[in-house]
Design goal:
The chain is α+β, with helices and mostly antiparallel strands and about 250 residues long. It contains six helices and 13 strands. It is elongated. The structure holds benzoic acid (BEZ). Benzoic acid binds next to helix 1.
């Protein structure tokens, strides 16, 4: 389990529980610069669990809830795929470590595995919603029995430079598609290192598109497999495809 230490609100202001509207759904561009994470056990501090890896932080409304259980079950099954892509997985739910341990047993049993209290990734115990508020993760429409807001289903993907690369926000009532999240990671990792973009419904192995800012002569040198354009009524050659680079 990773326990976040406090991060000072900007300008020293205490955020209200829902956070500032403009902060919701976005932690800003940098992760870990102001958040220190320590493992609950063993008690040696590290500055950041992401280090030089990619990272995914995904929040959950509550422990022992049905949709979340199916999502975490699927996330556990896909953990080897995230690991292959050098992506550190971190979940967050607004309950205690004890609840997380008990819930993990249920999740493993749901997957048909031994009901052990460990999962292949840590779950941040954000029982006081401190991190959820700071990262704008609360869902204004879903509340618990005491009227307190629950966490929405937020996905943040961070690059090895610790900057936010992608954020997706689902309401608590809609479960995520973790195959889509893996597809998005594949696109992020490809486009981070090559001057390409991935078109609609792209999947690994499909052709990619040359980014608009790259001039034709440079593109020809960069992509020796060739560039294919589609004729358009405008006569502009902006639909430039190339086979996925290695
Ligand atoms: C669920 O995980 O099933 C859930 C949690 C909060 C609101 C709706 C559904």
């Amino acid at each position: 389990m990773w326990r976040p230490l406090s991060r000072e609100p900007e300008h020293g202001a205490k955020p209200d529980l829902m956070g500032q509207p403009e902060q919701r759904g976005s932690p800003g561009r940098s992760w870990c610069s102001g958040v220190t994470c320590v493992p609950a056990a063993p008690p040696h501090a590290v500055s950041c669990p992401l280090l030089s890896r990619w990272g995914i932080l995904f929040s959950h409304p509550r422990d022992f809830t049905p949709v979340c259980t199916t999502e975490l079950g699927q996330a556990a099954k896909l953990a080897p795929e995230f690991s292959k892509r050098n992506v550190k997985m971190i979940a967050l739910s607004i309950d205690s470590v004890e609840d997380h341990l008990g819930w993990s047993k249920d999740i493993n049993a749901y997957n048909g595995d031994q009901p052990e209290q460990t999962l292949p990734f840590p779950i941040i115990a954000d029982a006081k919603r401190e991190l959820a508020v700071q990262l704008g993760m609360l869902d204004p429409d879903e509340r618990d029995k005491d009227g307190m807001p629950l966490t929405a289903r937020v996905v943040f993907v961070f690059g090895p430079d610790k900057k936010l690369k992608l954020s997706i926000l689902y309401p608590a009532t809609t479960g995520r598609n973790f195959d889509e999240i893996l597809r998005v990671v594949d696109s992020l990792q490809l486009t981070a290192y090559k001057k390409v973009a991935t078109p609609v419904n792209w999947k690994p192995g499909d052709s990619v598109m040359v980014i608009p800012s790259l001039p034709d002569d440079e593109a020809k040198k960069l992509f020796p497999k060739g560039i294919f354009t589609k004729d358009l009524p405008s006569g502009k050659k902006y639909l430039r495809y190339t086979p996925q680079p290695e």
